[in-house]
């Protein structure tokens, strides 16, 4: 059990969204937002390197805290902990930079967390945190407390005038991992001496020794994953944002006219979703445990978890190419199929909830696990050598106009340093040294996207919006 103390600073800011489909485009729109900045201050009394300035009890930090005015981001910092932790979130309302006339209250509503009314962040039944105006005295603040009883994927957002403050961007991911204790209560233990994971005393050789309790989505052996990704979905009506940015606007936006024109994953639209996430910073394991990266990069045979969160106002049919996902949980509850399959060593996929499109309403979360199955036994022969009288696919590709074959970014794209942009196309993959079954086939790439395909656009240009890529490299072991 740990005591984790987060400090969130409510303020405004802007995000820069691509207005076309071009990788690293400079054709962009600045959208005015509200949001939270800040993050994790300390764990068990030990301050996080780089975040010491968040210690509001030290007067010397007040200047730095106030300088964060105008630096809100979408999404807000990830808040995470384990079952049984004491999670404290201190909210300080540092006010708006552009809309300095606005003195709105803000709150933190931990969406999906069963907390007491007083801590629920719904201002109409509790309170709001007023703006820090007398900055020569300590800021008004409130510290929310959450004692997570169950693992899962949740979210948090401001609940003051929620129609506007949520649309403006005041939201982030909230993730709870199982603890070693909660796993043990469900028969899952790790042998101290040998390092093997066990279910009811029986060794589970599929789960690597390096795994920790933070490689499980739930207190269930089938919720093991190698890598995890938060996919926080939201939508932006830039006219609404423009309207809020204007002081004393004589014609304020009416929420019923909502008509989004940008669709985001973790605060970004494709092709920005292929770039390293700007909020992934710091070297402290408490900061790097989980992040907002949206370019999925795994090896064949690995399992990856998608923590789907919908903070937008529209329903999202989230479609994944390549494989079918298993729903391991919804709204921080283990899938009932896995409850029944708890003691089974191997899950029968006929008896779990599988799919290729997951419909996610606003305020819902889903935990999806995908196994990057090896497709070589089915497809490699045709692609590399040809079969059934058909030429190899590589040969066919070599005969068509190379310009018709797209270049795909390998690894997240660093636009700040164009020399580092590594693009690959399938001709190159085909040309890799012959004879090695690990080559001439990898990497594989699959998209995943909102299947309301007009939302895979920026400013009407395709592809953009809610789209990102999954890159799958060769497995560690040859075929
Ligand atoms: Cu607010």
UniProtKB/TrEMBL annotation:
Domain Plastocyanin-like: 51-178
Source taxon at top rank: Bacteria
Entries under InterPro entries matching the protein: Cu-oxidase_C, Cu-oxidase_fam, Cupredoxin
Keyword Metal-binding attributed: yes
Alphabetically ordered keywords of this record: Copper, Metal-binding, Oxidoreductase
Pfam name, any one: Cu-oxidase_2
Protein name: Multicopper oxidase domain-containing protein
